[in-house]
Amino acid sequence: MTWIDIELALVALAAMLSPTTLSFSVLALVVSDRPLRSGFWFYAGALAATLGIGIAAAFVLDDVAAGSTTSTAKTWVAVVDIAAGVALLAWVLRALRRPRDARRSASMLEQMRAVSASRAIAIAGAGAVLANPGGFIPLALKSISELDPTPTSYIAHWLFFAIVSLLPLALALVLLLVARSWTMQMLEGVRGWLELHARTIAAVVLLALSVTLVRNGVARFAG
């Protein structure tokens, strides 16, 4: 496993543990009278949006970030890595100092109540907007491009990123099929736990990603 592979894995993990994505995913299930329906369409919208962005990017980026070999990369990639790592570190430090916003949590709750009562296409659209990996997509695209992938390899790496980034919601849907009552009780507990601890866990992963990005950028300059 190369440092680029580690970087991609951390990007996917950071996307998966994004407090906003996790909160919207849990709310899509717990506030709905039909959690399987709401959760399925919410997941379908998010997954379709993520896969669609990856497919479109494949024609634009290809291996633009790859160097002459898998261990070298262009100077601009090193600059992007260091800048992204420093920006992530600054964002984490700022987010940890900021107090929790109860009004934002209430707004998210009301938003998802309205979404869960909507038609399937509206729920899917909300999933595409609210549960996609967002700002982690460019980092994932850069990491995959650095690997100089074949078409098959690109598809495999992007599927990995898309599936991992939405894994908590997918697992919750499976659990709902197996044990609905227990899962709904568990999700109610998870919802409160996320409000208290999600930012801290996400911060740890983002710090690891920040260090990896800066390390990779410096290593490319040194190489």
What can you tell me about this protein's structure?
By secondary structure, this protein is mainly α. The chain is built from ten helices and no strands. Helix 2 runs antiparallel to helix 3 (35-60) and helix 4 (75-97) packs across helix 10. The protein is globular and about 55 Å long. The two termini are 19 Å apart.
Reconstruct the topology from this structure.
Blueprint lengths: L2 H14 L2 H12 L4 H26 L14 H23 L4 H15 L3 H11 L5 H11 L4 H15 L1 H12 L1 H43 L1
Q: Given the structure, what is the number of helices?
A: 10
Biggest β-sheet strands, sense, barrel: none
Beginning-to-end CA distance, first to last residue: 19 Å
Poorly predicted runs are 68-72
* Radius of gyration, taken over Cα atoms and rounded to an integer in Å: 18 Å
Multimerization status: single chain
Main structural class: mainly alpha
Q: Write down the secondary-structure element order.
A: HHHHHHHHHH
General shape: globular
Mean of residue pLDDT?
86
Helix content: over 70%
Task: Give a brief rundown of this model.
The protein is built from ten helices and no strands. The protein has helices spanning 3-16, 19-30, 35-60, 75-97, 102-116, 120-130, 136-146, 151-165, 167-178, 180-222. Helix 1 runs antiparallel to helix 7.
Defining traits:
223 residues; 10 helices; mainly alpha; globular
